[in-house]
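Whether sequence alone determines local backbone shape is best considered at the level of individual chains. We regard such an encoding as a compact summary of how the chain folds. The sequence in question and its structure tokens are set out directly beneath this paragraph.
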Amino acid sequence: MRRSEQVKGAPRLAGVPLGDGQLSHDLDPSDRSPKDACGVFGVWVPPSEADRAEVSKLTYYGLYALQHRGQESAGIAVSDASRIVVFKDMGLVSQVFDESVLNTLRGHLAVGHCRYSTTGSPTWENAQPTFRSTGAGGLALAHNGNLINTGELADRLPPGVLTATTDTEVLTALLAPHGGGDPIAAAREILPTVRGAYSLVFMDEHTLYAARDPEGVRPLVLGSFEDVGWVVASETAALDIVGAKFVREVEPGEMLAIDADGVRSERFAEARPKGCLFEYVYLARPDTTIAGRSVQATRVEVGRRLAREHPVEADMVIPTPESGTPAAIGYAEASGIPYGQGLVKNSYVGRTFIQPSQTIRELGIRLKLNPLREAIEGKRLIVVDDSIVRGNTQRAIVAMLRDSGAAEIHVRISSPPISWPCFYGIDFATRAELIAGELSVEGIRDSLGADSLGFISLDELIAASRIPKDDLCRACFDGVYPIPLDESARGKHLLEPSTT
């Protein structure tokens, strides 16, 4: 059974226990690679269009398009102008919602969220959208990013107010105006005091709101349905999927209010752009556009530059599917070495509730990747991937290719070494777990068992993005954090009771 939370007292149903909530994401389930940020989506249509538009289904498909950004839980909040209904649960979008559930979520505006936990444990209580009663109504909110002054913000709330352990819960409690006041007025007061990364969509019974932190770390875009309705989403790909036209990005430090009067915009802070460079490397879909630049085009260009920085004689360029594919195409194009398929990915092996037996576990990534022996036997291979965190996945791939007869294996990575953790919405491993934090490039190469290893330089990656260096957050690569960090406020489980 699934759980639902419906405003005005409807019962909460018991949910499926998911153990510790850690769902397999990587080619190697034991390799803690960078975990995705979250995906947010919001839609408003005139009440007269509610039955035809079916905003819950639009939100479902929008979240489906953003599923790569978070796979632990999903939720949708809908308003019919009189009350807000929230339905959320642990699991993928397609596991949480079905036709019968979506048909019960009727209204003319909605917000949705797919989550990977970057603050707070992966539990039902921490799933989003979060909801708060305001006395005269309610407020539902979905958040992509991480706040870095969560403890300071939580201290403003009376004891016992929080019912979850996320920075999103704190933000919702602060933004929900008591006595049914204007959420915009609350946001004007609260948002200038919030530090960190936040791309927000939130709603009361009548209005859809959106806001983006002054640095604009995480993406957020505005779209329209032929001037009949409006959409806000984490990525332009979600607009494409639901048939909305891209209008523009929500600017850093900007807040929008969308209702029957159209889109109203105001600034709550001066823009200090620091968009996440890792969105181009890994997080965003290749069919998304960020800051006017196609993610796919950027990744192909990174591959070209990688070939020029780290050339090697070889017979074939192969990607680690699918994350390394665009850069591998670019590498092959610039080097003149043929592009080929050396590894086959099982598209149906994703997150599973079934833990493999020891016998199956020893097969490692073969559950998800298998080599094409006839294509690689006796060949000198260039294997292109997007990043290395701990190295377990790449180590297993190198061993598998050698077992299949590869003569040489040259690993090329389309990002610089990841040496620093992220505090703005990506759940990287701790610095102690990052292989680049302990080993030199040669040490990493030896650990992987590759014949050679090359990372693209930070300057070349930035050049491929076509965004000025000073307008990018590069902290995971160079340790320069654009939003100053308070050491005492760090930690994914900051708001959770200590077990010591």
User: Anything to note?
Assistant: The two ends are 34 Å apart (CA to CA). The first helix runs from residue 50 to 53. The domain at 294-466 is CATH 3.40.50.2020 (Rossmann fold).
